[in-house]
């Protein structure tokens, strides 16, 4: 019988995410979000910059 004879090659080389680094970045991102929302009544420009930075940290967090 000819057909699907796929093999899994070298599964041990799979790159797993770094859970510790993900958690640390997540905590830092949360701190920036809290700071950004706290800044809203005082300076919408600074609040926006801090919140945008926290979103950029979120992107980095997902790539770790």
Describe this structure in words.
It contains 2 helices and no strands. The longest helix is centred in the middle third of the chain and has 21 residues. It has a domain of 36 residues. Helix 1 runs antiparallel to helix 2. The mean pLDDT is 87. 64% of the residues lie in helices and 0% in strands.
Keyphrases for this structure?
64 residues; mainly alpha; 2 helices; 0% strand
Average per-residue pLDDT, rounded, comes to 87
**Rg from Cα:** 20 Å
Number of strands: 0
Q: H/E order of the elements?
A: HH
Based on helices, strands and strand pairing, what is the structural class? mainly alpha
Strand count, sense and barrel status of the largest sheet are:
none
Q: pLDDT under 50 segments (min length 5)?
A: none
Q: What's the quaternary structure here?
A: single chain
Distance between the termini: 44 Å
> What's the tally of helices?
2
Task: Please summarize what this structure is.
With 64 residues, the chain is mainly α. The chain has a domain at 29-64.
Topology:
Elements: H1 19-39, H2 44-63
């Amino acid at each position: 019988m000819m057909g699907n004879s796929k093999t899994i090659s070298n599964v041990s080389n799979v790159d797993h995410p770094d859970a510790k680094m993900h958690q640390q970045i997540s905590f830092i991102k949360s701190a920036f979000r809290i700071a950004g929302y706290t800044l809203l009544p005082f300076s919408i420009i600074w609040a926006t910059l801090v919140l945008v930075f926290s979103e950029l940290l979120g992107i980095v967090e997902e790539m770790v």
